[in-house]
Design brief:
The complex is a heterodimer of chains A (118) and B (112). Chain A is an all-beta fold. Chain A contains no helices and 11 strands. Helices cover 0% and strands 53% of the residues of chain A. In chain A, strands 2, 4, 5, 6, 9, 10 and 11 form a 7-stranded mixed β-sheet that branches. A 4-stranded antiparallel β-sheet of chain A has the order 1-3-8-7, with no helix packed on it. Chain A starts with a strand and ends with a strand. Chain B is mainly β. In chain B, the strands form 2 sheets. In chain B, strands 2, 4, 5, 9, 10 and 11 form a 6-stranded mixed β-sheet that branches. In chain B, strands 1-3-8-7-6 form a 5-stranded antiparallel β-sheet, with no helix packed on it. Classes of the chains: A mainly beta (118), B mainly beta (112). At the A-B interface, β5 and β10 of A face β4, β5 and β10 of B.
Chain lengths: 118, 112
């Protein structure tokens, strides 16, 4: 089992540049979550998908952030334009599946992408 | 809105002693409570979880208790070892939203 895969592992970019983070969930998992972790704000949920459909994007900080899940095995988180305050570790997590009314499922985290915006 | 408070923010214990971390949650519909351990530079990893139909769960040296009436749950680590040193996060989720709300984290240091 390969686990959740994220790329790149590290990204250094300059303010104003576009940044794209990628995630491959565990095969067979139907729910995917994007988190941001900083010392100041801890672990924040940005957006999550169920069966490739965005369910809750209330954590997305602003319009510069966007996320897509074109198929069950791939998701992207894009920041355009990037700013220094976007510097953080971005985690992707997946779970077997969430169906309204059913107990939530365990989430498994990827290794994260450490983003530095200069 | 949904909120999870975690205490203490830092905890230092001597090897062999017990450690207890406590969390309270605001959403009474929460029914799933996982605990994650995060070592420096690594991903959060699930160490134990509990669902609302049980009050206690144990796995070797770690245990979690849940008090739904008071809306709080706790992590207990016995016979602590230096490799237990890490940041521990509690979280709460409910079947209406499916999303985890995390506590602020507790940095545990186990001194040899």
């Amino acid at each position: 089992d390969a686990g959740v895969i994220q790329s790149p592992r590290h990204e250094v970019t300059e303010m104003g540049q576009e940044v794209t983070l990628r995630c491959k969930p565990i095969s067979g998992h139907n729910s995917l979550f994007w988190y941001r972790q900083t010392m100041m704000r801890g672990l924040e949920l940005l957006i999550y998908f169920n069966n490739n459909v965005p369910i809750d994007d209330s954590g997305m900080p602003e319009d510069r952030f966007s996320a897509k899940m074109p198929n069950a095995s791939f998701s992207t988180l894009k920041i355009q334009p990037s700013e220094p305050r976007d510097s953080a570790v971005y985690f992707c997590a997946s779970s077997p599946g969430y169906s309204g009314g059913a107990p939530p499922d365990t989430q498994y985290f990827g290794p994260g992408t450490r983003l530095t915006v200069l | 809105g949904e909120n999870v408070e975690q205490h203490p923010s830092t905890l230092s214990v001597q090897e062999g002693d017990s450690a207890v971390i406590k969390c309270t949650y605001s959403d009474s519909a929460s029914n799933y409570f996982p605990w994650y351990k995060q070592e420096l530079g690594k991903r959060p990893q699930l160490i134990i979880d509990i669902r609302s139909n049980v009050g206690e769960k144990k796995d070797q040296r770690i245990a979690v208790t849940l008090n739904k009436t008071a809306k709080h749950f706790s992590l207990h680590i016995t016979e602590t070892q230096p490799e237990d040193s890490a940041v521990y996060f509690c979280a709460a989720s409910n079947s209406n939203t499916g999303k985890l709300i995390f506590g602020q984290g507790t940095t545990l240091q186990v001194k040899p």
